[in-house]
Amino acid sequence: MRRGETPLGGVQDTGGELVLRREAGALVLAGESSRYGKPLRVDFAEGRAAHRRRFGGGRGQLIARACGLAAGVTPSVVDATAGLGRDAFVLASLGAEVLLIERVAQIHALLEDGLVRAASDADTAEIVARMHLAHGDATRELAALVAASGIAPQVVHLDPMFPHREKSALVKKEMRLFRELAGDDDDAPRLLEAALDVATHRVVVKRPRKAPPIAGPAPQHVIEGKTSRYDLYVHRSLKI
């Protein structure tokens, strides 16, 4: 292990440990490239996030429609499974105040680093000022984390780990890394229950298009895309 690298919780594969390290001015999470691919980083100013910000389709995007962003309506959103912050960044770029909750310490560190770097970029500073990061387990602490943030949870967005695919070759290397760190989100039903208790207007759950809903109450509405869908659990309408 080189100086400046940090082992992550004993997570290993045959090629060695996953490590956090600085690379080209950014914090990255890296492991054996044949298994995990390129080092993982959070970048809101360049790459995929920048392309989606410019050409993603604005409030016509599935996630925006699912979360209720419409003309004159910009709800506050709690992203209780923040991951790499991509969905939260889209919502914040459309004007929403977003609380990002991430329970995996290593992913939280990548998010924190990405937000700091984006705050110094003229194209993204205003957007990430609407993104508020918290470290904690939303399954057990959602109400407390929301209360501490001061953000009214009109919409709670959930994107639990997708079910395993039978053909492992189809699983992206990035997703392998997430599974190593976070597991399979077997507690997703409890997370949905917590979200329903906290959201004032709706809970939005991202799922593979053909996957069953999370165990629990049935969604009232579904918005489908080509490969994924959003299950909507609605308490009341979002109004202007």
TrEMBL record:
**The protein's Enzyme Commission number:** 2.1.1.242
Where it sits in the cell: the answer is: Cytoplasm
Q: Name one GO cellular component term.
A: cytoplasm
Q: Which Gene3D superfamilies match?
A: Vaccinia Virus protein VP39
Q: Does Methyltransferase appear among the keywords? A: yes
Q: Which UniProt keywords apply?
A: Cytoplasm, Methyltransferase, rRNA processing, S-adenosyl-L-methionine, Transferase
Q: Which reaction does it catalyse?
A: guanosine(1516) in 16S rRNA + S-adenosyl-L-methionine = N(2)-methylguanosine(1516) in 16S rRNA + S-adenosyl-L-homocysteine + H(+)
Return the InterPro entries for the record. 16SrRNA_methylTrfase_J, SAM-dependent_MTases_sf
EC category name: transferase
Q: Name one GO molecular function term.
A: rRNA (guanine-N2-)-methyltransferase activity
Q: What does this protein do?
A: Specifically methylates the guanosine in position 1516 of 16S rRNA.
PANTHER family named among the record's database cross-references:
RIBOSOMAL RNA SMALL SUBUNIT METHYLTRANSFERASE J
Q: HAMAP family, per this entry?
A: 16SrRNA_methyltr_J
* Family as reported in the entry's similarity comment: Belongs to the methyltransferase superfamily. RsmJ family.
Name assigned to this protein: Ribosomal RNA small subunit methyltransferase J
